[in-house]
Write a structure and sequence with these properties.
The complex is a heterodimer of chains A (about 625) and B (about 280).
Chain A (H helix, E strand, L loop, with lengths): L2 H22 L1 E7 L3 E3 L3 E10 L6 E4 L6 E17 L2 E16 L3 E5 L3 E4 L2 E4 L3 E6 L9 H4 L24 H6 L21 E8 L9 E9 L5 E6 L6 E3 L12 E5 L2 E15 L3 E5 L3 E5 L9 E4 L3 E5 L18 E9 L2 E3 L3 E11 L14 E3 L3 E9 L2 E14 L3 E4 L2 E8 L4 E8 L2 E5 L10 H8 L28 H35 L2 H17 L3 H20 L8 H10 L4 H20 L7 H21 L1
Parallel strand pairs in A: 2-10, 22-30
Antiparallel strand pairs in A: 1-3, 3-6, 4-8, 5-6, 7-10, 8-9, 11-12, 12-16, 13-18, 14-16, 15-16, 17-20, 18-19, 21-23, 23-26, 24-26, 25-26, 27-30, 28-29
Chain B lengths: L1 H24 L3 H13 L3 H13 L5 H15 L8 H15 L4 H21 L10 H6 L4 H24 L6 H31 L1 E5 L3 E3 L18 E3 L3 E8 L2 E6 L2 E6 L3 E3 L9
Antiparallel strand pairs in B: 1-4, 1-7, 2-3, 4-5, 5-6
The chains are: A alpha+beta (about 625), B alpha+beta (about 280).
């Protein structure tokens, strides 16, 4: 054999070794939901591909099969860490799930599915699927064997109803009312909000806590026979974690539900599993769909939707809450643990694999028992949490690497996880004791290099961040509310100067008022009125002289008030001229002078002349009014 | 006699059972505190933090508990179990200690040290500074304590009242000038002292001091979108340990004031420091 041929042979061997090595790095596992199904049924086909490196396999692919409708895949990732003989092995992988619907009878070969890794294709196992005509397989109808199983109207992947439309029209369903199967409670409705079609939503529970599973179901009801739900508008739920999965549709059998005098066709359209992320009034958006089918086809289309759902989400109670409880850790949980090895040398590590299983969204972290000399590294996770028949359940496996720094027998304590059990409405704690580890001294390591020594070094004097814990709760004066909070402070602050200013203004106004009143009391008009009152009094007692004197005084004062003329200082003729000059009307003037003459005569004679005392007063009042008007007009 | 024995046994069982259930369901704050300190002493920082946080959740406030909580967070921040935001939470706990006991020098120096540590770490990554320039009104109000502004306002009020009394009630000309002076100075003091006292009261009642407890809190608008960077070049990212004021809580967002910028942050990114005033709206 020539050297060139030898070289070629060697290269081929090397390439083969590399190829086989790469193949050994990926493992493929295949699962199929069933090997025999009826026409129209759907099953799931899943492959799990894992590699022994940090790089997961990619591009899962399943070739099409004539006669089968293949949808997907939905891809999930997984990471697994294991320790064998002190050597840590990490596996990274994906799972790819396809939904396959049988479209025609026969036997079909599914696969092989392929994934890409390191530039190569890897193939899965081939699975066989036998499709038989509908109704040939034994089947237990839901709801305790209802005889009514007219159709499966919901197609999770939009393939449409396989059943002839109008199979159960309104006339059909009314012909045999006596054969109605019992209606499941979840479909029962007291009254129909719409005479043609409607969508209804139910939510359980109505008052959840943060992290508790909330199941929302949407039902569609049609009054005109069968329908096909299309163009579904999914509800929004930004404040919830959705664990519904990729295919949340429910392929339920339809049921006939009597509502009032009408027999409705109803079906469950969606069932979604949500977990509230925080407390408060959280809203799940409306769900809508279009009713399609012979009796429902219309322009515009028969579209119905639910009202948004608002939930009052609270946090679990503070009473009895265990330390370390994290809001959102809700469910029914069990914790198991495996520790290996139990004997190590100081500086080496042990592996702690904890499995948290149960219902709920399964918390993503555990409480590790920290202590000096024991260092817990961040865990790696393997998760398998799924929605199983409306309940989210599964497990999370945590793999910790725990470094043992100090020699001796170390009690690791226990892993714990406090959680809220919604069924018992109480807190509980999942526990898993870790036991003891015998740590032999490490002759190669210097004692000062241990982590616990390093930790104690942190407490050295002079390190400003090495705080010494306070062991007692010393008394302290709780801060009082500042005096500026009291309203009386603000009243006083603004009220004092305001009160002084108002007092000053008040005093000034009071003085002015006093002076004004004093001035008004001595005015001629006021005195004239007083005199007139005196005249009235005298007139009532028929004292003619007194009456005349008072009337005369009242007239003089009225003239003074009305014209400013002092009549006592003037002779009669001068008075006439002065009054005329002051603009007093002639008639008034004449009557005033005549009255003055009458008063003078009565005063001196003591007898009433032509005018009686009351007449004098009456005329004087008239003149007083006229002279006052004169004053006002001037 | 036999019946009496049964009665005693049942009664004892009930008493023992009741005691067990009672002790298991709720620990007193003192017991919780002791458990936390014990955990802190043995280096179980996470355990200690759980106990201290439970105490805080139950409404128990004490400066020493807050101080120890800070010690636990600092301890965890320096351990392999460190979590993002530990130093911010330590700063919040120390700020709470100072709010409850303002003359706690150890807490004050520890808070300075924590902020220095955060600043040092941010400086390595080129992050924005920890302290933002406050807005003018808050800076003015912060020159003196609220009560000092109140006293100043009260002095101004008295002086103004005295000056007005001299002007309005004393008719002597010799009283006119002192009256005008007293009234003028009093009015000025009343406006400044009273106004700033009112502003300080307003700030205290409508905003709460809080500390950022995540590595960075990005300022958002009311729809939850990140705020655009202002033309002034100020950062829209509030660093860990920075003090901000929470103005309003709206769903999962808190409206906050950081320096001269208003914005929203996710509620869990900040921790409110226990308010000092007794009554808050």
């Amino acid at each position: 054999m020539s050297p060139r041929a030898l070289l070629g042979l060697a290269c081929a061997l090397v390439a083969l070794c590399f190829a086989s090595g790469a193949r050994a790095q990926v493992s493929l596992d295949t699962q199929i939901g069933a090997h025999k199904v009826e026409l129209g049924d759907s099953i799931q086909f899943e492959i799990t591909a894992t590699s022994s490196t940090d790089e997961p396999p990619q591009n899962p692919h399943l070739p099409p099969v004539p006669g089968l409708s293949i949808r997907g895949p939905s891809i999930g990732s997984r990471t697994q860490v294991s320790i064998n003989n002190g050597r840590m092995q990490r596996q990274t992988g994906i799972s790819a799930t396809w939904s396959i619907q049988a479209l025609k009878p026969g036997t079909f070969r599914i696969g092989p599915a392929t994934v890409d890794f390191g530039g190569q294709h890897f193939q899965s196992r081939v699975e066989m699927l036998e499709v038989v005509p509908a109704g040939t397989l034994p089947r237990t109808p839901p709801g305790g064997g209802q005889p009514f199983d007219p159709f499966r109207f919901f197609d999770p992947f939009g393939g449409g109803s396989p059943f002839p439309q109008g199979l159960f029209g309104p006339n059909d369903v009314q012909q045999e009312p006596e054969q109605l199967p019992p209606v499941p409670d979840e479909f029962k409705v007291d009254h129909a909000p719409d005479p043609l079609a409607f969508v209804r939503a139910t939510v359980t529970p109505k008052h959840p806590v943060v992290g508790e599973q909330v199941t929302v179901r949407f039902y569609a009801y049609g009054a005109r026979g069968i329908f096909r739900p299309v163009n579904a508008v999914e509800p929004t739920h930004p404040d919830f974690l959705d664990y519904t999965g990729q295919d949340d549709s429910i392929a339920e059998n339809a049921v006939r539900v009597p509502i009032g005098d009408t027999l409705w066709i109803a079906g469950k359209i969606r069932e979604i599993c949500l977990f509230p992320l925080h407390a408060g009034r959280l809203t799940i958006g409306s769900f809508g769909l279009t009713f399609d089918g012979g009796a429902y086809r219309a322009n515009p289309p028969t579209t119905r939707s639910t009202a948004p759902i608002t939930l009052d989400v609270t946090e679990p109670p503070l009473d009895g809450r265990p330390a370390g409880y994290r809001i959102g850790d809700v469910g029914t949980l069990e914790l198991s643990v495996a520790v290996d090895p139990r004997k190590v040398v100081a500086g080496d590590a042990v592996s702690v694999v904890a499995k948290l299983a149960g219902t709920g969204s399964i918390p993503t972290a555990l409480h590790v028992p920290e202590q000096r000399g024991v260092e817990w590294l961040d865990p790696t996770h393997v998760d398998e949490v799924n929605n199983e028949h409306g309940t989210v359940r599964g497990f999370r496996a945590f793999t910790y690497i725990v470094k043992m720094h100090d020699a001796g027998t170390v009690d690791l304590g226990e892993l714990t996880l406090p959680y809220w059990d919604p069924r018992k409405r109480a807190y509980a704690t999942a526990r898993a004791p870790l036991g003891k580890i015998d740590v032999a001294p490490n002759p190669k390591a210097a004692p000062s290099a241990t982590a616990s020594a390093a930790a104690s070094a942190n407490a050295d004097f002079g390190d400003p961040l090495a705080l010494k814990p306070r062991h007692t709760l010393a008394s302290y004066a709780s801060a009082k509310a500042p005096f500026t909070d009291a309203l009386r402070f603000w009243y006083l602050l603004l009220g004092a100067p305001l009160a002084v200013a108002l007092s000053g203004i008040g005093a000034e106004l009071g003085g002015r008022l006093r002076r004004s009143r004093s001035a008004s009391r001595s005015s001629p008009l006021r005195l004239a009125q007083d005199s007139l009152k005196a005249a009235e009094t005298a007139a009532r007692s028929s004292e003619i002289a007194k009456t005349a004197a008072a009337v005369e005084r009242a007239l003089f004062l009225a003239i003074e008030a009305g014209t400013g003329i002092r009549p006592r200082a003037l002779l009669k003729d001068d008075l006439r001229a002065a009054l005329a000059g002051a603009g007093v009307e002639t008639a008034t003037l004449t009557r005033a002078l005549e009255l003055l003459d009458a008063c003078e005569s009565a005063r001196f004679t003591g007898k009433s002349g032509e005018l009686q005392p009351k007449e004098l007063v009456s005329q004087a009042r008239g003149l007083l009014g006229e002279l006052s008007r004169k004053r006002r007009s001037s | 006699m036999r019946g009496f024995g049964w009665f005693c046994a049942v009664l004892s069982a009930l008493v023992v059972g009741g005691t067990f259930v009672g002790s298991a369901s709720a620990e007193t704050p003192k017991e919780e505190f002791d458990a936390a300190v014990t955990a802190l002493e043995r280096g179980a920082y996470g355990d200690a933090i759980d106990h201290f946080e439970l105490l805080a959740d139950r409404g128990f406030t004490h400066p020493d508990a807050s101080f120890d909580r800070a010690a636990a967070y600092i301890g965890r921040a320096r351990s392999p179990q460190k979590q993002p935001g530990d130093l911010g939470r330590a700063a919040a706990a120390l700020a709470e200690t100072l709010a409850l006991r303002p003359d706690d020098r150890e807490a004050e120096s520890a808070l300075d040290a924590v902020r220095s540590e955060i600043g040092r770490r941010r400086a390595r990554t080129g992050g924005s500074p920890l302290v933002a320039r406050p807005r003018l009104s808050r800076a003015l109000v912060g020159l003196l304590p609220e009560q000092a502004w109140g006293v100043l306002g009260a002095l101004g009020s008295a002086s103004l009242a005295w000056g007005l009394a001299l002007r309005l009630f004393v008719k002597r000309t010799t009283a006119e000038v002192p009256g005008a002076l007293a009234a003028g100075i009093g009015a000025l003091l009343l406006c400044v002292g009273g106004g700033l006292a009112l502003e300080a009261r307003h700030f205290r009642r409508t905003s709460t001091l809080a500390v950022v407890v995540v590595p960075e809190a990005r300022l958002l608008d009311d729809a939850g979108r990140p705020l655009a960077t202002p033309a002034s070049g100020e950062s829209n990212v509030v660093p860990e340990g920075a003090e901000i004021y929470v103005l309003e809580r709206r769903g999962g967002l808190d409206r906050v004031e950081w320096g001269t910028t208003d914005g929203y942050v996710i509620a869990g990114q900040v921790r409110e420091v226990e308010p000092r005033g007794a009554d808050r709206p």
